[in-house]
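Project standup — Tuesday

K.O.: blocked on the structure for the chain from last sprint. Re-posting the sequence here as requested.
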Amino acid sequence: MNKQVLYWGLYDFANSIVLLAFLFYFSQWLVVDEGRPSWWYNGALIAASILYIATAPYFSRLVDLSGQKMRGLRVWTFLAVMLMAIVALIALFSHALDGVAAILYACGMYAYLMCFLYFTPMLNDLSTFSDRGRISGIGQGFNSAGQVAGLLFTLPFINGTITLWGDAGRAQALLPSVVLFILFALPMLLLYRESPASASSAETPGTPLTLLRTVLSNKPLALLLIGYFFFSDALLTFANNFPLYLEKVFAVPDMTKALLTIAILGLAAIGSPILGHFADRWGHRRTLVCILALYCALLVALSFTTSFSAAMVFSLVAGLLFGPVWAISRAMVGQLAPQGLVASSFNYYIVAERFATFAGPLAWSGALIVWGEGARGYQAALLGMAVLLAIGLVFTVRVRDTSLQ
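H.V.: unblocked you, prediction finished:
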């Protein structure tokens, strides 16, 4: 692994720490500890997604025109760190400003998402046609490892072993996660050297609508993005509701949930580089299709099993395959992106994931409304995710595999 890839991987490690900490603990601090309605938190996430979807095409066009990414990455990382740090300080010192914290969190998440507009296209700068899956897998492995590190590092702050200020609780974990974010991101921000050769002189379309049409006129890329919308929708919704599934179906204790989550993330960190490297040899689309088909089977099996031991085995296998889904699909976008539109192509890849955060929860919630909040409802919801994943698989099968050429 060369230094440039290491710096890139460390940044992915860093951003996953702060994301996990705020998803886990800021949400519970705002809704449970502060007693605010849950739409405050979900509204902040939706606002961040809307801002990103509205503005990212303009910024991605600038990246495609200049080919330069580091300046934008530094600016948006600085903004994300500052905003998240202020939110963390409010949670520690001023509970009366929890409404301000929710607004600043939306702004911080927007800045966080904008970082990926510059960070993700670097995959094509760091890899070649023959090793893109492996390099993408390395980055995804760092991401999963960062989530494990975030859970382990913040645990002493959550259980009261370490208290920064005031009472022990969830708010204590936020500021340390921001500090870790900037510490592990610094090698990328200070030492990464962007090659002038990465600049592009290609003309890009003038309006966001024309840009979208140009990107989607590439049929294989369009099919992949549509498929990605469905399968990422299913998998992210399943992952976000996994602790509730364990609670409602098997009444699993919190410590067991935490240990199982750490094991799953650890396997995701291992599976990403291994299967990414394998995909370079066997074919990206072929490997991704096999993984998605296995995931369909796993979700169906989980929806019918009444044994926690069996569910644990299925979940661990799912963890091994979880990271490679993103590693390989990201590599495929890099392979299929039209010349001069790499950043714009990756932007729509991120946009597809943002839209997926709306549809999946609606389908999951609908299953619970129809079948109830008990075990039966959660098992029906899992079957619903298997259906969404299968739809994504249908589109992905039709993508032309350029990795074997």
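K.O.: great, moving the ticket to review. The two ends are 25 Å apart (CA to CA). The mean pLDDT is 83.
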